[in-house]
Amino acid sequence: MSELLAKAAKAKGSAQGLGVKTTEQKNAALHIIADQLISEIHFIMGENEKDIENAKQKGFQASLIDRLVLNTQRIQDMADALKQQAELNDPIGDVLESWDRPNDLAIEKVSVPLGVVGMIYEARPNVTVDAASLCLKTGNAVLLRGSSSAAHSNKALVDVIHRALEQSDLPADAVQLLEDTSRETASKMFKLNDYLDVLIPRGGNNLIQTVVEQSSVPVLETGSGNCHVFIDESADKQMAIDIAVNAKTQRPSVCNAAETVIVHVAWAKKHLPELIQALQHHDVEVRGDDKAQALAENLIPATEEDWATEFLDKTLAVKIVPYAQAAIEHINQYGTSHSEAIITESDDNMLAFFNNVDAAALYHNASTRFTDGFEFGFGAEIGISTQKLHARGPMGLPALTSTKYIIRGKGQIKA
Amino acid sequence: MSELLAKAAKAKGSAQGLGVKTTEQKNAALHIIADQLISEIHFIMGENEKDIENAKQKGFQASLIDRLVLNTQRIQDMADALKQQAELNDPIGDVLESWDRPNDLAIEKVSVPLGVVGMIYEARPNVTVDAASLCLKTGNAVLLRGSSSAAHSNKALVDVIHRALEQSDLPADAVQLLEDTSRETASKMFKLNDYLDVLIPRGGNNLIQTVVEQSSVPVLETGSGNCHVFIDESADKQMAIDIAVNAKTQRPSVCNAAETVIVHVAWAKKHLPELIQALQHHDVEVRGDDKAQALAENLIPATEEDWATEFLDKTLAVKIVPYAQAAIEHINQYGTSHSEAIITESDDNMLAFFNNVDAAALYHNASTRFTDGFEFGFGAEIGISTQKLHARGPMGLPALTSTKYIIRGKGQIKA
After folding, report:
1. Is the pLDDT of residue B64 over 90?
2. Contact B115/A363, CB-based, under 8 Å?
3. What is the pLDDT of residues A150-194, one digit of tens each?
4. Structural domain span for residue A349
5. The CATH number of the domain where B191 resides is what?
6. Which of A88, A283, B199, B319 is spaced 20 to 30 Å from A345 by Cα?
7. Is B218 near chain A, with CB under 8 Å?
8. Residue B380 in domain
């Protein structure tokens, strides 16, 4: 039997037993893992050093090597995150709805674990611990497939998790790591419908699109964000500038950063130069349409392609529109249904924006940068879903649950 | 442009406008469609006659031809169903959750339509109207791909729906039917992620498995049911016999019918012959394991394959177990996680069954035949989901919804 099938079977074999563990048993296990990470910190760092050495020999960029590093602080952060997850509400076993039928059947809809979660992710080894702990907290077994560049680190972390789980009430088999990180094996993972209830890809757009296109296992897609800030006619000047600058520059490389600012022509005639100046003061390269170029100086001409581009750096496109509806249409045409903001003092335009823009998160007078499980108060984040099935937007622990119906009768048969 | 892309684009183009129609506008449209079906009943039956003639010439079985027939009664039933759907609660626009964050952001989670639903289905033309109306009620556009054997009937029904929608406030483009029913076109539909938010296959297991395996569009899987009734030691004799007979014989061809009855050995020693007699009285062919054969006469030996078979006819496998946990293990090994029943007077065994059997619907002292959107009180049924993502078990209107987050701020930016 291949490593893939053997480990998938182990994960599945452990799922039923794991799924009925109590909140106390699961939380205790998270604490044991946290403590084990600290007590084995030198082992982890030693194994991590092998990945760092390999990466250096292969000539990886400094930023990529930095993502691989596990130092004392980062391991302590992982341990802290585990203890915080232990504090979170356990969504398993909640009675979500209950009702009685005219024939006296009593129906309950109860939250249960998904079963076995497959995770395919890149580089950062902290995802290994994060994914494992979120799955354990929600009673799910997990089959992890990390990056080959983090192979030693990931194996060390899962070895530590196994040693911790053996001291706990949870089955150690519930966390499985594939040592074979070949693409062929990942492709086989896409077809493991008999073992996996969901696949969650975390990483770049190429990885996610490959999984979406090839997986027959249901996928939770966490995709790209071409996000907009629309500054309406009535927008407060300073609020609009602050939000546009924040949405673009506070962390340009993430999916909830803004890529295009759309400006109502009346506001632009008064304030566009000041907005551009503020953006340029933060080293933003601003690309404007014809009207923006006519209203402000030092703009690079925007191309059609710019409207559809997730720059992920300090580049921003600016478009001028004659009325709010044109902004809504632009967003629905070019956006990726992630996070969209309107800055306005008009309730009508706010409501039109909320009703007619199709996106996971819609903001009135706030930055798009708040689309995030922690900012939403979920205490944890599985990722930000860009699909409409199962979960949309920031996903907390409930995204890792399914339901079952419990029906209590007194001998009812169907007529 | 191909018919597929043109119609997918029309559906998508209409989705945003449809999604914000009021409940009153949507319900009015359902009534207009119902009336139009009746006023064009002769047109529909005339077109249906062409499909019937084709089917007869191709030598279809009588049962398949019967599924195709649209007579006065069946068209009236469709119209009645439309009017009943108009009465159902509209799940769109519900505020599902709302909370404030410490930074004063006010967050609401609101239910919204999925967008565009793709339906791939076999034979029965009533599914055309049912799918279209359920989608319209929930503000979703729909791209329909029916069977070639029902091509004239489906086109007539969608023509009627279009003429009705033109009298309504809803966009007529929201309902699209593919006239090209080739497999190649269906395969292309599996890859229309830019146009379709979900694909729902309705039909036989082959169709569903093909869609699950090949679609990159997220799928709502409505699959097969290898359902069990477990008769525990303490089960009431007559209740157990009545439920086993009902679960097997009330409608053997459907997914929530029982395929195996598992019997506790102590109950079997007292009552197995009477159970077998009752089943055989309903023309059930009973296949028993060695122990069942020793306790009752006239049993055909059950094979290993029988435990995994969804007979879908009046065939039933019977297995004897020494204790309840063995029944739970058998069900988790061979079941398809659809509907499972325990007949017992023991609360402990009921709870063990509820906690440890992994299935969409778990029954205590009731027939598995109740797993159904109408029996659950949903007033409509999209299908019975056998996957764990998004929806599990009978799906009512909320299964055709997604969510968006609405966040109201006062100028908040991320620190």
Report:
1. no
2. no
3. 999 999 999 999 999 999 999 999 999 999 999 999 999 999 999
4. 227-370
5. 3.40.605.10
6. A283
7. yes
8. no
8 Å CB contact of A365 and B412: yes
pLDDT at residue B204 greater than cutoff 90: no
What is the identity of the amino acid at A310? E
The ipTM, to two decimals, is 0.94
**Pair B335, B186 in one domain:** no
For residues B114-128, average pLDDT: 92
pLDDT score recorded for residue B149 = 95
Write the CATH number for B254. 3.40.309.10
- Is B43 near chain A, with CB under 8 Å? no
CB pairs under 8 A between A and B: 201
Nearest CA in chain A to B407: A363
pLDDT higher than 80, residue B253: yes
Judged by CB atoms closer than 8 Å, whether chains meet at A213 and B213 is answered as: no
Indicate whether B259 and B184 sit together in one domain.
no
Same domain, B334 and B288: yes
The beta-carbon neighbor of B388 closest among A219, A375, A402 is: A402
Query: Is A381 part of a structural domain of the chain?
Result: no
Q: How far is B152 from chain A (nearest CA, A)?
A: 33
Number of domains in chain B: 2
Looking at residue B124, its pLDDT comes to 86
Residue of B nearest to A20 (CA): B355
Count of H helices and E strands in chain A?
15, 16
Q: Are residues B278 and B326 in the same domain?
A: yes
A382 within a domain of the structure (yes/no): no
Q: A366 and A291 share a domain?
A: yes
Q: Which A positions 338-357 lie with beta carbon below 8 A of chain B? A: 354-356
